[in-house]
Amino acid sequence: MHTVQRIALVLTVIGALNWGLVGFFQFDAVAALFDGVESAGARLVYGLVGIAGLINLGLLFKSWEPGTIEERDPATV
To answer: Do 69 and 22 meet the contact criterion of CB atoms below 8 Å apart?
Structure first.
C-alpha cells in the first residue's frame, strides 16, 4: 500500500469515528476542536477526509494478488 493510501485510510478512519460520535452522541469532535463547523480548520479537515474517502474508493476495485494475505492452516485454528 502506498504512503498516500495509508494517509488516506487514516483520515477515513478519523472521519468514520467523528461520524460515529455525531450519530451516537451528537458531538462533532472536529467542530469542537476548531471552534465550529464553519471555521477554516474544520472545513479543511472535512475536505481532507472527503478526498481521502475518494482515494480509498480504489481499494474496493483493487485486484488482490494471491499470497498477499497470510493464509492460516485450518488445522491450527
So the answer is: no
